[in-house]
Amino acid sequence: MAFIDYYKILGIAKTASEKEIKTAYRKLARKYHPDLNPDNKDAEKKFKEINEANEVLSDSENRKKYDKYGENWKHGEEFEKAQNQRQQQRQQQSSQQGFSNDEYSDFFESMFGGTGGGSSYNRGRSAKFKGNDFNAELHLNLRDVYTSQKQVLTVNDKKIRLTIPAGIENGQVIKIKQKGGPGLNGGPNGDLYIKFIIDNHSSFKRQGNHLYQDVDLDLYTAVLGGEITVNTFDEKVKLKIKPETQSGSKVKLTGKGFPVYNKDGKFGDLFITYGIKTPSNLSEEEIKLFKELQKLKAK
Amino acid sequence: MKEQLIPAQTICSHYNIEISFVDTLHHMGLIQVEIVEQNQFIHEDQISELEKIIRLHTELDINLEGIDIVLNLLQKERELQYEILMLKNKLRLYEND
Question: Which of A12, A248, B39, B96 could be A16's S-S partner, Cβ–Cβ 3.0 to 4.6 Å?
Answer without folding.
Answer: A12
